[in-house]
Amino acid sequence: MNTQKLFSLEGRIALVTGGSRGIGRMIAHGFLAQGARVYISSRKAKDCDAAANELSAYGVCKSLPFDVSTVQGCRDLAKAYGDQEPHLDILVNNAGAAWGEPFDQFPESGWDKVVDLNLKSPFFLTQALAPALRASVSANAGRKAKVINIASIDGISVNLWDTYSYSASKAGLIHLTKRMAMHLIQEGIVCNAIAPGPFASNMNKEARDHGDQVASRVPARRVGRDEDMAGAAIYLASDASDYVLGHTLVVDGGTSMARG
């Protein structure tokens, strides 16, 4: 049993959406450290290019800035990736949005923006990149290709904030991951998800700006570190998770269990 090889990403190619910052960047950094070649994508070209340049200190990292909030944007990213590489070994659907507003004022735009990006885009981007994922399986003697959807503990347990569409979109993504997994495994593609808890990021400003206060509500008594997220993603991207299917790996220091 070669456990180093089991968790290795040497020679593999990954695409991480929302990879210029936050959880996406943590995952991209981890993949690079584990030997993968990584493409990151985000809506803002300047930020995406800058992040790829900084991450290149750890391995080969390239920028593919696209807005994947629309089906056409997903298809455009898939085409741009296909112009660069013949196949894709690992896809991380991480790009996401949140919206908070009181129940009586919550607008339709707060549903459309969040659900389109958090729930619809992971499906259509995976659909658009399915030929590249299938090509990975064919090119590597049947080695599994991997899809990782980034959900949230807010799709598992109820938070205290007025983020109605965010919670619904992440709960939907957790179930969608199971349904996608049942289909994609027939083609040698393994699909799972990660549900992060409190990690410091632009999306989770509370954990970023009030880490000590947030940590007091976490059973592990701290917010998540880059290595916590990288380790979970490396596991799901590597051969070590080949027999794990449609699962949502909760990485939250026990937060979802402590709620309520």
Describe the secondary structure blueprint for this structure:
Elements: H1 3-6, E1 13-17, H2 22-33, E2 37-41, H3 45-55, E3 61-63, H4 71-84, E4 90-93, H5 108-139, E5 145-150, H6 164-184, E6 189-196, H7 205-209, H8 211-215, H9 226-237, E7 248-251, H10 255-258
Parallel strand pairs: 1-2, 1-4, 2-3, 4-5, 5-6, 6-7
Helix pairs in contact: 2-9, 4-5, 5-6
Characterization of the model:
The chain has 260 residues and is α/β, with parallel strands linked by helices. It has a single domain, classed as Rossmann fold. Strand 5, helix 6 and strand 6 form a beta-alpha-beta unit.
CATH top level label = Alpha Beta
The total of helices stands at 10
Order of helices and strands: HEHEHEHEHEHEHHHEH
What is the name of the CATH superfamily?
A: NAD(P)-binding Rossmann-like Domain
Fold-level CATH name:
Rossmann fold
The quaternary organization reads as single chain
**Straight-line N-to-C gap:** 43 Å
Residues in β-strands, percent: 5-15%
Short description:
With 260 residues, the protein is α/β, with parallel strands linked by helices. It has a single domain (3-258), classed as Rossmann fold, CATH 3.40.50.720. It has helices at 3-6, 22-33, 45-55, 71-84, 108-139, 164-184, 205-209, 211-215, 226-237, 255-258, and strands spanning 13-17, 37-41, 61-63, 90-93, 145-150, 189-196, 248-251.
Please supply descriptive tags for the structure shown above.
single chain, 260 residues, alpha/beta, Rossmann fold, 7-stranded parallel β-sheet, 7 strands, globular
